Amino acid sequence: MIYAGNFKTNHTRFSTREYINKLNLKLKDKNPEDKIYIFPPLTAIDNYSGNFTIGVQNAYPIQNGAFTGEVGIEQLDEFNIKTILIGHSERREILGESQEFVAKKFAFFQKMGFEIIYCIGESLEIREQGEDAVIEYLLAQFEGIDTDYNNFVVAYEPIWAIGTGRSATTKEIEQTHNALKKRVNRPILYGGSVKGENIAEIASIDSVDGVLVGGASLKVDSFLELVFHQK
Predict the structure, then answer these.
(1) Could you read off the pLDDT of 67-102 as tens digits, one per residue?
(2) Which of 13, 37, 190, 222 is most buried, by the most CB atoms less than 10 A from its CB?
(3) 63 vs 83, 113, 170, CA distance in Å?
(4) Which residues are tagged catalytic?
């Protein structure tokens, strides 16, 4: 299983270091086959070490240059960052990243050899149109994406379940993941109000290869509850 924590615009460098220190104490007992990823805000990136991978929530597809407010490869190299989230619905919906730009980012970081967690998801309006409409909408988010790239993971996050407290049903998750697996031969994470109360049920679905979580990752204890849910 893959357990990825996306801090979004939460935590500082100080609180992230405290979090990492606590995480390290517990991860020595994790299943050695499980993979752990932490995505702090950019200002909290540092030279952390442990039985996990640090990634970035966003970066601009450039080595360096005149792109005010952005960071490029030059800044990520300082901290040996080689993992990135691309396509998160908050960047698509709130910050206006088009599929064309998302695909451009994917191609750039693919060329740079990054491990990519590629996010897709649908609105409640699309979900209410039925499973066929959902799959058609999700597959359109692979336009321009090299799905044969061997160093990326898909994260399916229904937009209507992110931070709402409402998770998709196991039937909805299973149907959607199974359909995606037929088209994209990559590990697929589920994200959307995953918490201690539902992690065992979600993780038991054969086509779920892990979870990408926001709120449940902000406190180290609640994140560890996911990692150790079977123990």
Answers:
(1) 999 999 999 999 999 999 999 999 999 999 999 999
(2) 190
(3) 15, 13, 42
(4) 88, 157
